Automatic annotation (TrEMBL), chains A, B:
Family indicated by similarity: Belongs to the THEM4/THEM5 thioesterase family.
Lineage top rank: taxon: Bacteria
Lineage: Bacteria, Bacillati, Actinomycetota, Actinomycetes, Streptosporangiales
Membrane topology of the entry: Peripheral membrane protein
Protein's recorded name: Acyl-coenzyme A thioesterase THEM4
GO molecular function, one term: hydrolase activity
Residues spanning the signal sequence: none
Length: 201, 201
């Protein structure tokens, strides 16, 4: 085992990955599982009790989670520390775009066996923001338009891409898409306003 | 204790509520907590192992989670069975709109101490869909436009509202908003296409 793997297993990332398994298994179970749900609730509440007893003050955690000026690790789309996030992991491409491959399960369902349109919106909004950071000029989302061309399948590899298109004064325009097996399912156009975003210090 | 409370505590809803506490506590902890994260990961993986060992076949669960023709209980915005969902709970209003009050914590963060723009998009997309169901004509999201007017605060009561505006042939137009302390933070306009959506049987 390499040190990297060991670090991942022992840190909050490993606990978040385990929490993702719990989320998926609970949605899979619903109320037709043979599992002892009262016992499961007791065990999860005990974990939450132990974590809360050791929790840092909120202010300290806010400073900590926003340390540095680059990417953060806690957000609900790409944050390895956040069990809500799939999480997306990005690769920068030479043309200035970014890309993430992901397969989504039942907790992200909208229509039967399809990704929830709002989940696609969450992943695209975040990815457009990361594309802005990759291009060097970031901003706050002012307007986001999503177009749904085809259902986005669950349980199949998806590719989420985004690219900064233009910067005109404070106005940043960025586009993105989610595709499955080469077919575009959702496209996004975002208008962002460049402004310094103070981080908690 | 009433029977209703007992049912909730013992079913999957109680386990999902406990999983929400774990998600919140993990994001609060990050890597500056004194908690034994390797031990936490082991305990969560053991819960996932037990749930997975009792999991119904996926096909059975899909039929089960889509039973009936009304609202479902598993989605990532309002589903009490889904730990990712806050979850929103809706009230219909006499004017045909619907409303949900919710307070969001750290797992839903975008900018510092503010709700992630993509989370607002998720909650609004879903709420527009519920407003369509409430009005009697539902459809699939074709286009969704979000406008971000002010940061949406974490840790403060939010009101999410939506209303079906028009039905013209198969085209449904629906609007919604998220407000905090009476101030509109995000607005949404959706175009939905009415079509029968076959449910797994």
């Amino acid at each position: 085992m390499t040190m990297d793997l060991q670090t991942e297993r022992c840190g909050v990332d490993g606990a978040a990955a385990a929490a993702r398994r719990v989320i998926d298994a609970l949605v899979r179970a619903g109320d037709i599982s043979g599992a002892d749900m009262a016992g499961i609730a007791d065990r999860l509440n005990a974990v939450a009790d132990d974590l809360e007893a050791q929790a840092p003050p909120l202010r300290d955690r806010l400073v900590n989670m926003w340390r540095g000026d680059g990417n953060t690790r806690h957000d609900p789309a790409a944050g390895p520390e956040n069990p809500i996030a799939p999480p997306l992991a990005y690769t920068g491409r030479p043309d200035g775009s970014i890309e993430s491959d992901v397969t989504l399960g039942l907790p992200y369902q909208g229509p039967p066996s399809s990704v929830h349109g709002g989940v696609s919106a969450l992943l695209l909004d975040h990815t457009l923001g990361v594309a802005n950071g990759w291009a060097g000029t970031s901003g706050m989302t002012a307007e986001l338009t999503l177009r749904y061309h085809h259902p986005t399948p669950l349980f199949e590899p998806l590719t989420v891409t985004a690219r900064q298109v233009s910067v005109d004064g404070r106005k940043i325009r960025t586009t993105g898409a989610i595709a499955a097996a080469g077919r575009t399912c959702v496209t996004a156009e975002g208008l962002f306003i460049a402004k310094p975003l103070p981080r908690p210090r």
